[in-house]
Structure formats: structure tokens, C-alpha cells
Amino acid sequence: MIRPRALHITLTPSTTTSNRGCAAIAEARSVLEHELETIRTGGTWKGERVITSKQGPHINVDGSRGDILNFCANNYLGLSSHPQVVEAGIEALKKYGAGLSSVRFICGTQDIHKDLEQKLAQFHEREDCILYASCFDANAGLFEVLLGPDDAVLSDELNHASIIDGIRLCRAKRFRYKHMDLNDLETQLKESQSSRLRLVVTDGVFSMDGDMAPLKGICDLAEQYGAMVFIDECHATGFMGPRGRGTDELLGVMDRVHIVNSTLGKALGGAAGGYTVGPKPLIDLLRQRSRPYLFSNSLPPPVVGCATRAVELLLTSNEIAQSVGDKTMRFRNKMTDAGFTISGSDHPICPVMLGDARLASLMADDMLKLGVYVIGFSYPVVPKGKARIRVQISAAHTDQDIDRAVDAFIQTGRKHGVVS
Ligand code: PLP
């Protein structure tokens, strides 16, 4: 047997440095492991199921046998796998390549980017549009450009995390009003009266409850107190309102909401990307100063191709925008008749309220055993005691899909004593 030669290490300055590096990463590992354990023991660990097919109402999930009914994607209009949307992505990939290897202002703007921006501005009936890699970026990049220390931002307390982060980055005075509470908003508008610009900021639809911001009241107050209005329409663009323009269309305030941020990653094809539409000088200034736009790669051509076709489909016909409404009402009515409590109103986000976090998680697991993929949400994503299973309806679900989901809910609901 050949014995390995003993290794004699002399501590040169560089090995000392590398030992210190090892110690630092070992310490970081232990800090991280501790943090991970806290999440596990706190019961808030987020696992990820692996899908082995394309996105749609019927999917394959690693570890589950056969066809699984999917009720937890934001694929509201079923456009993620729409043949025309997929084909447009392939065409763009062939003609324009995989990506730009550049940000927009260096050499990353193609005619398809300009075309999509123009179509989105037209769709929302706003002056101009700027694309981002995501709506998270659009929210991160807007507020610090628009608002300075002399200005004020008034934000609903339950706004999306990306809005909260975007507001943190800006130097305006911050006012947080109680969720959808117009009286509280008015109080804060009075308090912020001395600011130069004021911006009321709200999700159009809040994704945990499927509830809609009271936009008419918000616009009335904003006009009374001289403030602008911003909405995040990620859970509304494409299917809320008669032509799918969003909650501002549904509530008759399209011309009273000044700035809209939304995503291409949900109803509009589901790939990725976000955007801001609003007054031209704002969009011009965002192109000059908005950091996620300036310092991040252009949207890849296939993504632009898919989104453009999705918008074109919606611009040509109102039928697609309305295709999810009946399905939503079928689910909501059947579940309510069966004794479940469904929160929100008329929105394809249908939270099945259960209260207890463990119950929500167990029921979601049992639903998967019955071939229906839904997700339980509990604290800290939703308030304590308000755990739920969030069901999301897609226009691509058939009536039979919806009935199968309701039957599975009744079966698991009976097993866990939620309904009789
Ligand atoms: N705003 C809201 C209300 C959202 O729900 C989301 C996504 O979950 C975002 C912004 C971020 O969108 P994107 O996925 O395009 O970054």
C-alpha cells in the first residue's frame, strides 16, 4: 500500500488569508443554517413542486402520477400555452435571436420593443409605455424617479412587496393608510397637504384576497386634495373590465388614474416582463433615470414576441378578456353552495377561507392526492387566523375541470370537518 506523504503546510501570508476566508464562510454557513432552521420550525418553509410539462390547466408534477389539474397559476386567460402566442415567440427567436446582450440604451432596443411599448400604451389608453424585465423592476424603478424629499407617497398597507420595496428606495415622505380605508386615506391626504407632489399608490386587485381597490373613491379624494393616483394592475390587466383594460376600466376611472404598472408574466402570456404606462414626460424621465431599466438587460425577443401576440389578441377581440368570468362564477357559486367561504368578489382569485394554517396545508396535500393542485397560504403571507387555499381560475379550465375541483374540495372538506 502506498502511504500518502505527510503534508507539511507552512503558514505563508496567503494561506493565512485563505484560512480566514474558510472561517468566514464556515461562520456564514452556520448563520444561514440557523436562519433556515428558524423558517422550518416556524412552519413557514416554502417548498417548490416541480412541473414537468408546460403551464396550463392540466400539468404533470414530479412525484405525482398522471394528469394534475392546476388551480394555482396566474394564467388567467390561458395564454401561456396558446398556440399563437407560442408561435410568435418562436418567430421572434428565429428573427431576433435569444437576447440582446445589452441594456436598452446601449444596443438593446429592437423594433419589437418599441412596437410592444406602443401597443401597451394603446391598450391602456395612456400616452407612453416603458418595458422592464419584470413588474417587480417597474415598481422598484418608478417611485425614486418621480418623487423626491419634498413629495409624499400614500400607500395601502397591503400593497405588494415590490411596491413596498420601491417606496423604500425613494426619498419622499411615506404615509401608509389602512387597507382600502378611504377615511384613513383622507386623513393622510390632509396630513401630507404641504408636500409638493403626492401620489396615492394601490394594487388594483390584492392578490391574497382577490379584493378590488375602491378606485372611484380614491380618485375622488385624490382630485379633492390634488394628488396623483398609481395602480399596480398585475392581477387585473387583460381580464378586468369589458375590454380587459383593468380595474380602472371596470370602475370607470381610466382617465382619472395617472400611472399604471403591470406585468407580462400573468394574463399577457405569462412569460416575464413588466411595464409602466403614463404621461410621456414621466416615461421619458424613467428611460433616463430608472435604475432597473438602465442597468439590466433588455427583454429577450421571444418574450417580447409572446407578449406582443397576447396584447394583439386582446386588442382585436373583447371575447378573450371575458372568457374567465363565467368560469369564476361557476367555481364561486358551487363552492358557496357546498358550504365553503370564498373571499373577494367576482375575481378569478378565489380564496377558500379555512382559518387554521395546518388545516390549509393538510387540505392542499389531500387535494393533490385527488389530482388537484392548489396551495395553502398562511401567516406571514396572510394575517394569523386567516389561512386559506387560494384557487385561481383560468379561462383554459373547462366546466368539467372546475366541477372536478369542487368535488375534490367537498371530499377533502368533509374529511377535515370543514363542510358537512
Ligand atoms: N405586483 C403584484 C401585485 C404582483 O402580484 C406581482 C407578482 O407576483 C408583481 C407586482 C411582480 O410581477 P413580476 O412577476 O412581473 O415581477
UniProtKB/TrEMBL annotation:
Gene Ontology biological process: L-threonine catabolic process
One Pfam family recorded for the sequence: Aminotran_1_2
UniProt keywords, alphabetically: Acyltransferase, Pyridoxal phosphate, Transferase, Transit peptide
Keyword Transferase: yes
Protein name: 2-amino-3-ketobutyrate coenzyme A ligase, mitochondrial
Residues covered by the Aminotransferase class I/classII large domain: 67-409
Species of the source: Salmo trutta
Gene: GCAT
Cofactor(s) annotated in UniProt: pyridoxal 5'-phosphate
Any one Gene Ontology molecular-function term assigned to this protein's record: glycine C-acetyltransferase activity
Coiled-coil stretches noted in the UniProt entry, renumbered to this chain: none
EC number(s) stated in the UniProt entry for this protein: 2.3.1.29
Domain of life: Eukaryota
